[in-house]
Amino acid sequence: MTTEVVGNCGFSLAPRRSRHADTFTAFTGRLFPPIDWAWSGFDEFFRTTDQNGYVTNYCQLVGHGTLRIAAMGMADAAAADDDAIAVMRTELESAMAAGAFGLSSGLIYPPAVYSGTSELVRLAEVLGGDGLYATHMRNEGAGLLEAIAEALEIARRRRA
Asked: 0.85 cut: is pTM over it?
């Protein structure tokens, strides 16, 4: 049977927090048809998908952009403060406990483009030894080597 990795490039269908629900709905509307949101966290999301059944196996990643929207909306050019990072870590911990496999980032897309390396390290720490970190790096052109260095730095500091 085929296994699909979903939640790539910093985007996943949970968590969805009520404070920024409209922002998240608009964000997902660019990629998906209208969704009847029967969930907010990954525990509810997995219950919903389990009830509907699957045609493939899937490996769910938690999107960093989705975590940022849950914590702080689409705040342009804003660095996440300690409170926002705490919200993102809590949501990521909950998702991992519910069955997510790891964290993905899409660092060329808003709102993740505004994050710093330290924010990503603090989130990657939640993954422990078994969680995956997959990145759509910040740059795939002239800044490629710097983007690779950042991805390696996140991995190195996560394990420290």
From this structure: yes
